[in-house]
Every structure is written in structure tokens, then in C-alpha cells.
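re: that chain from earlier
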Amino acid sequence: MGSLSRAIDYSNPIVPGFSPDPSVVFVDGTFFLCTSSFHVFPGLPIYASKDLKEWTHIGNALNRQSQLSLKKAGTIHITLDTGFPLVGTLGIVAPSIHYHKGTFYIMTTNTDHSGTYNCANFIISTENIWGNRWSDPVYFDFNGIDTSLFFDDNDRVYVQGSWMLRRDKQPTATIKQLEIDITTGKALSEAKEIWTGWAKYDTEGPHIYKVDGYYYLLAAEGGTFEHHMFTIARSTNIWGPYESAETNPIMTADGKDEYIQNIGHGDLFQDHDGRWWAAVLGVRKQQDGNLGLSRESFLSPVDWPRGGWPVVRQPRMNFTREASLSMVSHPPLTAPPFVEDLYIRDYDPSKYRHTDDGTTITLTPSRTDFTSPVDTCTFLGRRQRSLDSTASTRIKVIEGPLGKNVQAGLALYKDPIRSAYIAFDFATNSLVYSIHNSASGLSGRISRKVIGKVEESQ
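^ sequence. v structure.
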């Protein structure tokens, strides 16, 4: 490896709470990780690390409303071919992050369900990832999701993606590829099928890596639940034919007694010394079957013998691996102020005012609530990062257009179908607790009158 190394302890998840579909690129001594963001704004969070242990949220690639609209990023509730229900939120899904000749690129899809399942694929770029200023989207035509870039040695640029077939019967998708002009988004070839997958079940999340003269094509298959897996194929020609590995699936928790379940959809990358790693989606399955903080980003070592197939180790909550001393004892990176703040879809900035020290926020109420399938409501949130979390707030009502006809408080928000809140109703002087899950039918509301005077500001 060429440099001093020692055994280093690592822990998972590397990015906890609402961080699915990780993609990683390593540039000039820093690892950068990007995840899906769906219907919340700002979108496409960027995390940075010097050592793969401490990750800092340094920015969001979609941070200007002029870049795109999330207005139609609703939530679908459908029945899968297995007969099980799927509740899925649309918006920004499955990004892939890349670096080529001084420029960072993110390729992703803005999905919505306005009558049909629409997929708007695009590329954004920046030369300064620390500056938090990414370009406007460059759109390109692709009938699917999970698009990824590959820059070949001859500077030709290729897109691989999960080409949609039908959602109610397997196979639902196949992997297609086209050559593209990275500047304009113009297709330089037709989209051609290069691999149907190994399991041929929800074949998604493709990435290509060129190693030892082979083009390796990684995919996620089996659906994003208990049958999720990594599969891989390779070819000496980027257009194929691709040969499936005899060792497929190269990673899965299906049928295994593992705490980290549903593992799949991720990325392979190298560190300072050429060691391979995987960043993967997974969930921490609790004893009661609850999935904790839903889909999170996990790190796992990869062994890749020369001329052979990669071996992705099972993700563990804690593990040890030999690593370069250059990855040890780095000072923590600094997160920009308010970088974690989240809003629902196309929020109205005029409804939110922060004091300079960030301790007080003035919110203007909206007439819509969490159950609105589109548009937005007045909501300022953060991703829940720990299974053991506490949140508190102090609220006052200020006379405005709605008078005292206002509810304000704390909420747990997933999407229009799933939310819960505790709030004070200033019109009735009542404390309200509400839970809403239209997918399961577990919805209810309790209201209790408050006895005594409630502090107000007129």
C-alpha cells in the first residue's frame, strides 16, 4: 500500500437517520457522500469526511428554489406484485456523485406522480463543493431512475440507469446505457440494454467501475426491503455483453440473522491507499420489527482481488480494518449554520424569520397542514439522527391575519400519509395530540383543555 497503517475502529451508521441511497467520491484527501432527499428542501445533502469515521453535513446541492420545483413530490401507496403494500415518497431520488477534471457532478432524478410516474433526470455541477453553489439542472431524456455517470479513459461520458418497464409485474426494470454530452445533456447514442440483472427483480442502482481492464457493473436488486441485495457483472467492453458473477449476490442480509437489514443500493469507492469500501443503504431492525430511523447509510470494507470479483463484507455496527495513518486524527470539519434545516417541498421563505443567533424563529402560519399531498405548509424540521432523541420548544402566538385561529407545536413528519404532532390550539386554549397514518388506518386525535393562563405576546 505504500504508507504506514494500523487497525482502526469504525462504527455504523456513518450517516444516521433519513439518509438512503448513498453515493461517495474521494477527492484530494476528502470523502464526499450524497443521499436521496425526496420531497424536502434543501435537497441532496452533502456530507464530508477525512477518515470515514466522522461525517459533517457541509451543504445541500439543491439549495435554490430556482433550480427546480418539488411541488408535485407526493407520496404513493401501492400494492406490490408480492401483495405487500408500498408507501413511497417521490421527489429527488438516488443521486450519484462524481468528480472529473476539476468538476464535481451529481446525477439524479426528480420524480412525481402527476397522473403517471414521471422521471425528470438531470445533472448539476460545481467546481467548488465547499462553496455550496451548484449549477442549475441540465436535463436529459431517460425513461427511468437511479442514473449514474461513468467517465471513460478516452473522456467519453456514459449514463447507466434503471429503465422502467412496469411497476406491477417483474421484471420492473432493466439496466440501459447511453453516451451523453455532459455539458448539454444531449444524447450521443441510443439507450441500449446492457444487463437485465442477476435476480431480474427490481434491477436498480447501477454504477460502473473500470478495474484491471474490466468494466464492472454494480446493481441493487430484490426491492428495497428484506430481499435487497448487491449484484455485479463485468465486461471488457462498456457496451457488454456483461457476465454475471458466480458469487452473486455479493452482499445481502436476506435470510440472515443480522441487526442491519434490507442492505443494498450503494456505491463502491477507494481511499488514500487504494483500499475499497462500500457505502450502502440499510435499516436497523428492532426486536419489535420497527425499522428505527428508516433507511440510513452504512460503511463496509470491500476486498477486491486483482482480476477477480469484489467481496463486500456484511455491514456491522462496529468493525476494525487496517487503514492508512493519513486517515487518523483529523480535526473536525465545520458545518455551516442552519445547514440541517428542512422544509416541505416548495416552501415560502417569507414565512420564516431567524434571529441572528438562531435561537428564535418567527413562523407565519399556513392554511394547509401535513396531510396536503402537494404544495407546502409552515414547517421547519431536522432529520432525526438518534434512536434516543429529545426535542422541545417554547411558543408564543402573535396576532396576525389568522388571529388566534392557530395551532403550533412539535411534529414528527414522514410524508402526507404519516405524521404525528403535539400542539397548542390558541383558539380553544387546548393541547392537541394527533397521529395520522392513512396507510395503516392508525389515525387519531386527542384534545385537552388547558386550565389557567397561557402566556401570549400581542
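The two ends are 68 Å apart (CA to CA).
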